[in-house]
Design brief:
The protein is α/β, with parallel strands linked by helices and 501 residues long. The chain is built from 17 helices and 18 strands. A hairpin with a 7-residue loop joins β13 and β14. The relative contact order is 0.08. The structure holds 3-methyl-2-oxobutanoic acid and zinc ion.
Length: 501
């Protein structure tokens, strides 16, 4: 029988640690439901002890998301482990993921602990987690820069203390496939040995662009769990891309000979949702989920694919959920036509969300002749996680030109009263932001602003992402609109509303 490869998704924990990502608990729950549809095996919902927001998200996911084993990260400290359990206890199946740094540089410079102290804390951490569950993962952080003999000693002690998964993190993305295999072979032989109840796992970062290659090479050395994030998001250059690993294993069964339980047809949808809620765009040529991943430009390639798809495609676009667009709506499409398009696209909306999406569709149809699947999807996605806040946009007027300072007048509904604010700036968006700021009683610094086209053409829709910082916290807002200034203002209001919430 072929071995099962466990897919451990850490989009909501390590992925969310990427700079500028600030997911609310509602957004994390929405992503978690989609990850469950994707059928990941383990879903790391967060690091419960790290903040009240993370605790809330882990608790809500544990209580409401069915399917995957729900995990929380915890340092090898009693308080962290107790909080992880408190957040996870409502889940049908849960895992506590205990970690402790083991490299010389981390122990000496960061933890200021001796190797003996690290060994002891690791064992105690695993034992404490075992009081709550028999599913305990242990990660020696910075494993690939750890003295190998010490790494083996700590991992063996963790297994003796009750860890059932030993995860080898390449925390700083330092490994290469060949040396990673060598290390993994040692871990497999000397830590797992003949213990069928112990799984060897890997967690690779992408600092040298090798995360997926390292993860795949580890399968050949016996790893049966791979950790990663959708779209490869994560600290610095990110983590292993789940979608790439899954499709590599599925496409090259002849090489990997392991089974994955993932529903690959959900990969594209999951990638889009994560991109939309994190505000991290997916590069056009990204493997599997990039919008050009199945696009053929050269005549020879197009000709070949028309004759036989396999001439230039090793995967079927439909297998990863990328289908050719078929639906076009317009100004005369009514409620029934819109509902029919959603059904064909496999989208289900509750009554209220449907009404809001339909209203937005009608407004767009007044400005744009043809509305295709990408635009419909963008409208619907905007309605799936709605941020109700005290302030909403009623109207916006901006003016300015080459020699005139741009000026904006914005009408906002502030707690039920419509008020007008005006502002000036270097450009129209800047002026609109200056006007909007006045409706909120706190200072917000704009830390990121991105405009990504949803479709091409002069009347294209754009997706606008705004990230602001208030104190030590970051908040993101998003909008889709054919008018970039109006969309920017909507996204800015959404981010500011999150602070108010
Ligand atoms: O990169 C890392 O070492 C981690 C661990 C906490 C698993 O994310
Ligand atoms: Zn990591």
């Amino acid at each position: 029988m072929t071995d099962r490869l466990i897919i451990f998704d850490t989009t909501l924990r390590d992925g969310e640690q990427a700079p500028g990502i600030a997911l609310t608990p509602d957004e994390k729950v929405a992503i978690a439901h989609q990850l469950a549809k994707l059928k990941v095996d383990v879903l790391e919902a967060g690091f419960a002890a790290s903040s009240p927001g993370d605790f809330e998200a882990v608790s809500r996911i544990a209580a409401g998301v069915e399917g995957p084993v729900i995990a929380s990260l915890a340092r090898a400290h009693p308080d962290d482990i107790d909080q992880a359990y408190d957040a996870l206890k409502a889940a049908e199946r849960f895992r506590i993921h205990v970690f402790m740094s083991t490299s010389q540089v981390h122990m000496e410079k960061m933890l200021r602990m001796t190797p003996e102290e690290v060994l002891k804390a690791s064992v105690e951490g695993v034992k404490r987690a075992r009081r709550y569950t028999d599913d305990v993962e242990f990660s020696p952080q910075d494993a690939t820069r750890t003295d190998h003999d010490f790494l083996i000693e700590v991992c063996r002690a963790a297994v003796e203390a009750g860890a059932t998964t030993i995860n080898i993190p390449d925390t700083v993305g330092y490994a290469t496939p060949a040396d990673f295999v060598e290390l993994l072979e040692r871990v497999y032989a000397e830590v797992r040995g003949d213990r069928d109840d112990v799984i060897v796992s890997v967690h690779c970062h992408n600092d040298l662009g090798l995360a997926v290659a390292n993860s795949l090479s580890a399968i050949r050395a016996g790893a049966r769990q791979i950790e990663g994030a959708i779209n490869g998001i994560g600290e610095r250059a990110g983590n292993t891309s789940i979608e790439e690993v899954v499709m590599a294993v599925k496409t090259r069964q002849d090489v990997f000979e392991v089974e994955v339980g993932t529903d690959t047809t959900q990969l594209f949808e999951t990638s889009r949702l994560v991109s939309r809620l994190t505000g991290y765009p997916v590069q056009y040529n990204k493997a599997v989920v990039g919008r050009n991943a199945f696009a053929h430009e050269s005549g020879i390639h197009q000709h070949g694919v028309l004759r036989a798809r396999e001439t230039y495609e090793i995967m079927d676009a439909a297998a990863v959920g990328q289908r050719p667009a078929q639906i076009v709506l317009g100004k005369h499409s009514g409620r029934a036509g819109f509902a029919d398009a959603l059904t064909k696209m496999g989208i289900v909306l509750e009554d209220e969300a449907f009404a809001r999406a339909f209203e937005k569709f009608k407004r767009l149809a007044d400005r744009k002749v043809n509305i295709g699947e990408a635009e419909i999807r963008a409208i619907v996605e905007e309605e799936s996680v709605v941020v109700e806040g005290p302030v909403s946009m009623v109207g916006l007027h901006v003016s300015g030109g080459n020699d005139v300072t741009p000026q904006a007048v914005v009408k906002l509904d502030v707690g039920g009263t419509v008020r007008e604010f005006s502002g000036t700036g270097d450009g129209m968006v800047h002026a609109a932001f200056a006007a909007i700021r006045q409706a909120f009683p706190f200072e917000a610094r704009l830390v990121d602003y991105r405009v990504v086209p949803v479709t091409s053409g002069a009347d294209a829709m754009a997706e606008i992402n705004v990230v602001i910082r208030v104190g030590d916290d970051t908040y993101a807002g998003r909008s889709v609109n054919t008018d970039v200034v109006e969309g920017s203002a909507e996204a800015f209001v959404e981010a500011l509303n999150k602070v108010e919430k």
